[in-house]
Amino acid sequence: MDKQLEALSIKIGNLLKSKGLTLVTAESCTGGWVSKVITDIPGSSHWFDRGFVTYTNTAKHEMLGIDEKTLEQYGAVSEQTAQQMAEGAIKHSHADVSLAISGIAGPHGDTPEKPLGMVCLAWSGKAFATFSRTDYFKGDREQVRYQAVTAVLQGMLECLEMKS
Q: Span 51-64, mean pLDDT?
């Protein structure tokens, strides 16, 4: 496993375990990569509830309860959708905190308004408000996805550290 992703996952796991919290993931463009990195850590079953891979709009709606109007108005790659993914993941799991990713990893699917490498990230928790951001990563599909996984894990770590 990549050492940076492993270190982030271990830190997140240690914080979640020490706080008695569990995590759920909602992924689109990363296709389960975050869940894989997390479950590579021995003992992650103590702090990881489940992961949703919702690649299509239908899956986002059916599995996470994303409002179809949000998808129509803002699209799958938007902070509004990422926020609803994070919130929906908590509602459809037994977890306390969540992270969500939706983006355009390429090599196709971009528009002038939503270029390749645009990734929307969100974090939510039962004890704190949902927040999100949009990042723009450079590189090929694999590089964009790797950067998205790193960014969402780093954001989760920062969130957990702030809530200490």
A: 98
42 alpha-carbon distance from chain centroid? 21
The model's pTM is 0.97
For 68, phi then psi, to 5°, come to -60, -30
Question: What homologous superfamily is domain 3-162 in, according to CATH?
Answer: CinA-like (3.90.950.20)
Amino acid at 108: H
Checking if the pLDDT of 4 tops 70, the result is yes
Q: What token pair was written down for 98?
A: 């969540």
Q: What does the pLDDT look like over 12-41, one tens digit per residue?
A: 999 999 999 999 999 999 999 999 999 999
Q: Which residues contact 96 (CB under 8 A, 6 or more apart)?
A: 21, 22, 23, 90, 125, 126, 127
Assign 88 to helix, strand or coil.
helix
Burial bucket for residue 5 (CB in 10 Å: 0-12, 13-18, 19+): buried
